[in-house]
Design brief:
Keywords: GTP-binding, Hydrolase, Metal-binding, Nucleotide-binding, Riboflavin biosynthesis, Zinc. Its EC number is 3.5.4.25. The chain has 7 helices and 7 strands, in the order E-E-E-E-H-H-E-H-H-H-E-H-E-H. The protein is of the alpha/beta class. It has 2 domains: 163 residues, Rossmann fold, CATH 3.40.50.10990; 36 residues, no CATH class. Strands 1-2-3-5-4-6-7 form a 7-stranded mixed β-sheet, sandwiched between helices. A hairpin with a 5-residue loop joins strand 2 and strand 3. The radius of gyration is 19 Å and the shape is globular. The structure holds guanosine-5'-triphosphate. Guanosine-5'-triphosphate binds next to strand 4, helix 2, helix 3, helix 4 and helix 7.
């Protein structure tokens, strides 16, 4: 008796559709026009933004920043982290380069949300570091996933990226979701007395490639900032 085999079709992340492209328009800014594309998550209605400069469809090695929302720093000017500066510098980079994408993901507080991030700040004021505070609240160090970012890039037609980041987990996360990362572009920001502990902890605990001092310099050619 001949054996009939059903071809095994493995589900791939690429075939899952998490998002719909909801709207887009050109928005004039101090840096120039940003093509602003809003994607909506089908499962929860959450909106994420792609800020696109130039023509990226079908391109390899597109400079991309995958940036997580940080209301406290980006809107209120908090000095406890370097998020606003990283966003500003990434936008400078892609606009000066004439091509690139900044994905602005609604993953406040590394995915735990604004209210919980402020709870974590209260614990940090009592001496816990950023990861200890997360754990005390019952969360892992980082709740983010990169499936949404990967699908946004695919829907924009980006074939591979030069990722603006210091976070090795972001690179791994995107690769895992099927987006080739050609190289890393370091994101360099200034430290201050309020965020130096946060930056050091990220470097020590999650391997962030942060150059806090001149002696940390590496010889990668392109840098943001
Ligand atoms: N839970 C928690 N989140 C924080 C804290 N400080 C900043 N964040 C959040 O951390 C996120 C920072 O995200 P990103 O700017 O993408 O930075 P990153 O993962 O450090 O990696 P790169 O900037 O790409 O190197 C934002 O969502 C901030 O709101 C904190 O003390 N606790």
């Amino acid at each position: 008796m001949s054996e009939s085999r059903t071809p095994q079709v493995l589900p791939t992340r690429k075939s899952t559709s998490l998002l719909e492209k909801f709207s887009e328009a050109d928005v004039p800014t101090g840096r120039g026009v940003l093509r602003t594309v809003v994607f909506r998550e089908k499962r929860n209605g959450r909106e994420h933004v792609a800020l696109v400069v130039g023509e990226v469809q079908g391109l390899e090695g597109v400079p991309v920043r995958v940036h997580s929302e940080c209301l406290t720093s980006e809107v209120f000017g908090s000095l406890k982290c370097d998020c606003r500066e990283q966003l500003d510098r990434a936008l400078d980079f892609v606009t000066q380069n004439g091509c690139g994408v900044v994905l602005y993901l609604r993953q406040e507080g590394r995915g735990i949300g604004l209210g919980n991030k402020i709870k974590a700040y209260a614990l940090q004021a009592e001496g816990l570091d950023t990861y200890e505070a997360n754990r005390q609240l019952g969360f892992p160090d980082d709740l983010r996933s990169y499936d949404v970012a990967a699908e946004m890039l695919r829907l924009l037609g980006v074939r591979s990226v030069d990722l603006i980041t210091n976070n090795p987990l972001k690179i791994a996360g995107l690769v895992e979701e099927g987006i080739p990362v050609r190289r890393r572009i370091p994101s360099r920001t200034e430290h201050n007395p309020h965020n130096v502990g946060y930056l050091r902890t990220k470097r020590e605990r999650t391997g962030h490639l942060i150059e806090l001092f001149a002696e940390d310099d590496d010889d990668t050619e392109a840098k943001v900032g």
